[in-house]
Amino acid sequence: MDSDTFWAAVALVLVIEGLLPFLSPAAWRRMFQQILQLHDGQIRFFGLCSIVAGLLLIWLLL
């Protein structure tokens, strides 16, 4: 993988991650309050789903 492509991907992740707190800080805060109420296993499951979805998307694009 080209290092420019890697850094562009990291930059895009930062932009996407910053959209919700920038556009709606109250909704972002509520979301984190709800996440804090989840059990570790539930949070791990969502993390795993995110990893799998990302890997599938990369596989489809390459």
UniProtKB/TrEMBL annotation:
Q: Which Pfam families match?
A: DUF2065
Q: Does the keyword Membrane apply?
A: yes
Kindly give the InterPro entries that the UniProt entry links to this protein.
DUF2065
Is Secreted given among the entry's keywords?
no
Keywords, alphabetical: Membrane, Transmembrane, Transmembrane helix
Can you tell which superkingdom this protein's organism belongs to?
Bacteria
Transmembrane regions: 6-23, 43-61
Q: What is the name of the protein in this document?
A: DUF2065 domain-containing protein
